[in-house]
Write a structure and sequence with these properties.
single chain; 432 residues; Rossmann fold; Zinc Finger, Delta Prime, domain 3; 4 domains; two-stranded parallel sheet
Length: 432
Amino acid sequence: MAQSLFSDPGRVPLAARMRPQALADVVGQQHVVGDGTPLAALLAGGPGASVILWGPPGTGKTTLARLIAAGRGAAFRELSAVSATIKDVRGVIEAARTDQELHGRTTVLFIDEVHRFSKTQQDALLPAVENGWVTLVGATTENPSFAVIPALLSRSILVPLRSLENADLGVVVDRAITDPRGLGGAVTVEPDARDLLIRMAGGDARRALTLLEVAAGEGDHVTLPAVENAVQLAAPRYDRAGDRHYDVTSALIKSIRGSDPDAALHYLAIMIAAGEDPRFITRRLVILASEDIGLADHTSLLMATAAHEAVSFIGLPEAMYPMAHAVIHMALAPKSNSVKRAIGAALDDVRSGRTGPVPPALRDASTKGARMEGAGQGYRYPHDSADGVVAQQYAPDVVSDRVYYEPGSHGAEARAAEAAARLRRIVRGHSD
């Protein structure tokens, strides 16, 4: 029976035992490790450069970091951004600097979930990267453009990784079944059980091996029910950079847009329970507040922004309350996409070349030369009018009659529609 293989709680997990020891063992990701790619050169011990590995869980980020260190004959040091402090970072950097100066040995510093480092913590890495004291390899499931500071990005090779295809996962599973480091041929897996295991892994090699290990713990013949049971025992999958991530995020946004607070709370709960970064959730809420609610309820933007600020100094689990507060408020709020349509129409004009010189009366008149060119001449100061608004051309000639903002009729925007129409009549000098 295979039970003995897994009864020892101190045994190294199957996924760790099966970690590739050489580049030839890496499954998938040929778009970044194939011949001629910058990462392939680095793996082969070529000139050093720091690397940001961006991709879903279980796609080989830690493995690639270790292979980079092996290829360069470098020491491998690992930190998790979840628990590491600036003191920890500086300690590793100082040790690496000493090792380089005394023994000529380089260090690969692998930081898992680097997106969880604050700006200050990421800034602390810059001198070491800039001076070559360490080769930084950062792993992130978040878009580095938002999660990693520009100064660090500009000094690194960005390597996007993909979820593994089912065929790739099949190779991973079959290898684990037969390899002496894995199950060593001690178990057999029924074809339909193997297929379900691969499907449920969702492109995540680590999850595939975890499911296999749990299922194999029930006996030396893995059946479909054993895999189904393993799926229930293993942590539910929520790939923060994969399809499930985007599906749930989309459902949250569409439920708020559709004014269903209960559905919205359900999807919010999924994201919280799965460990989603609360800052990602609240960033989406801030965007939605202007894109789908706008001036129909201007307090929604304030509410979403407040929730975003709250998660930064409260953190989970308590931050779920202001997030739920904002989600309910926004789902119940009247909706309008007029802000989105307005800026979209304005951008369309600008990008198509439909613009022109700023009217002379509006130009900066702070210098004598500008005033000699007519800047500021004829400008009417609105505060000199009893109404606080005067007839005056503000837009360039080519778009002087364009209407970008077209208010809706819901919530506070109904009043905004009346104000916008009245102000346009005065500003544009229309008597009707």
